[in-house]
Design brief:
About 30% of the residues lie in helices and about 20% in strands. It is α/β, with parallel strands linked by helices. It is globular, with a radius of gyration of 21 Å. Its cofactor is Mn(2+). GO terms for molecular function: magnesium ion binding; manganese ion binding; phosphopentomutase activity.
Length: about 400
């Protein structure tokens, strides 16, 4: 069967247990959903995801508080990443048929002096910090200094990112974005090849009241080839991007993109898309799980955010028709119960639902995230690059 509209919702960083190659990333034992469930001791209530079969993905080790159901309403499974990294860019590109095969640049000791000097010469501002840091901790520890001096707070993480934080009252957004655009332009190729440059503006009067704003902007590498979104757009289909999807793909393959300020806002805009008349693909990223709770190793906040999402998911589902398909997945893990503050190499959940389904079944373990994009392409009769394997034929309304 085929569908008039397909909705993709990426619950950013919501992994479902260590991947088969987790040992290569130092992530043996990582389990984002499992550890959140344990933290809530049975009080993690996700009724919509539960009836869709979330714990059915791992029936021998269900997520605490989320039951294995006898008759799930959705198709369910999990996907393995084949890209060489575990960054958001890697995961999203792979979903859309473009696995990342060349390792990106990582700078666990900070960025080279030559790169820092280029940033200073271009901006006319001094760079401070230049080492791995938590985004909230770095503005707490250095934000007042930044306000007093106008310096640039430059930091990184275990991902391929260069982040620049500045107070909005000290460095206007336009200037911060211009500096980040320059940083993007000089880090595309080796010896740097950094996945994302991220502008991290914040506000507040002092270190105890600083907050990062929704004016974050990601300057990602341009996709290195054609993605499934490009193919859909070229075929005359609508491709609606919600949240940081536009940043991750640098605007490629998108017919309409909207910025979001939070998970709630992202789901509200996705619900708005469901109420529209369009023919094609709506692709949403909900980044708060990752940015606000995973990296901060906050299982309580993460679980509360999951329960809020589940409630909005119920509202979203009521706006779907039998001609709609929604695919829910993630781009990597970020286990708030694990060591460190970085992404974790995990399987990601795969849930496919349409109101036309009578029963759900297992889709098994998919060898690559690209199966997602391949399914969307087959649904609309668009040729792909054979990187992924469509599971469209496995989705049926039959008993």
């Amino acid at each position: 069967m085929t569908f008039k509209r397909v909705f993709g919702i990426v619950i950013d960083s919501v992994g479902i247990g260590e991947a088969s190659d987790a040992n290569q990333f130092g992530d043996v034992g990582a389990d984002t959903l499992g550890h959140i469930g344990e933290h809530f001791q049975g009080k993690l209530k996700l009724p919509n995801l539960e009836k869709m079969g979330l714990s059915n993905i791992r029936p021998d080790n269900p997520i605490e508080g989320v039951a294995v159901v006898d008759d799930p309403i959705a198709y369910f499974g999990k996907m393995h990443e084949t890209s060489v990294g575990k960054d958001s860019m890697d995961g999203h590109w792979e979903m859309m048929g473009l696995p990342v095969t060349e390792p990106l640049g990582f700078f666990p000791e900070g960025f080279p002096a030559e790169l820092i000097k280029q940033l200073e010469d271009f901006s006319g501002r001094h760079v401070i910090v230049n080492k791995p840091y938590s985004g909230t901790d770095v503005i707490h520890d250095y934000g007042e200094h930044q306000m007093a001096t106008g310096d640039l707070i430059v930091y990184t993480s275990g991902d391929s990112v260069l982040q620049i934080a500045a107070h909005e009252d000290v460095i206007p957004l336009e200037e911060l974005y211009r500096i980040c655009e320059y940083a993007r332009s000089i880090t595309i190729d080796q010896p740097y090849r950094i996945g994302r440059i991220i502008a991290r503006p914040y506000v507040g009067p002092d270190k105890d009241h600083f907050t990062r704003t929704a004016n974050r902007h990601d300057f990602a590498l341009e996709p290195t080839g054609e993605t499934d979104m490009d193919r859909l757009k070229a075929a005359g289909l609508d491709v609606l991007a919600v949240g940081k999807i536009n940043d991750i793909f640098s605007g490629h393959g998108i017919t309409e993109g909207v910025h979001t300020e939070s998970n709630e806002d992202g789901m509200n805009k996705t619900i708005e898309n469901a109420k529209k008349s369009f023919n094609g693909f709506s692709f949403t990223n909900l980044v708060d799980f990752d940015a606000m709770y995973g990296h901060r190793r906050n299982p309580e906040g993460y679980g509360q955010a999951l329960m809020a999402f589940d409630q909005q998911l119920g509202d979203f589902l009521t706006n779907l028709t039998a001609d709609d398909l929604v695919i829910i997945t993630a781009d990597h893990g970020n286990d708030p119960g694990f060591k460190g503050t970085d992404h974790t190499r995990e399987y990601v959940p795969l849930i496919a639902y349409s109101p036309s389904f009578k029963h759900g079944k297992s889709l098994g373990i998919r060898r690559t995230y690209a199966d997602f994009g391949a399914t969307v392409l087959e649904n609309f009769g668009v040729s792909g690059n054979q990187v992924g394997t469509s599971f469209l034929s496995e989705l049926t309304t039959n008993d």
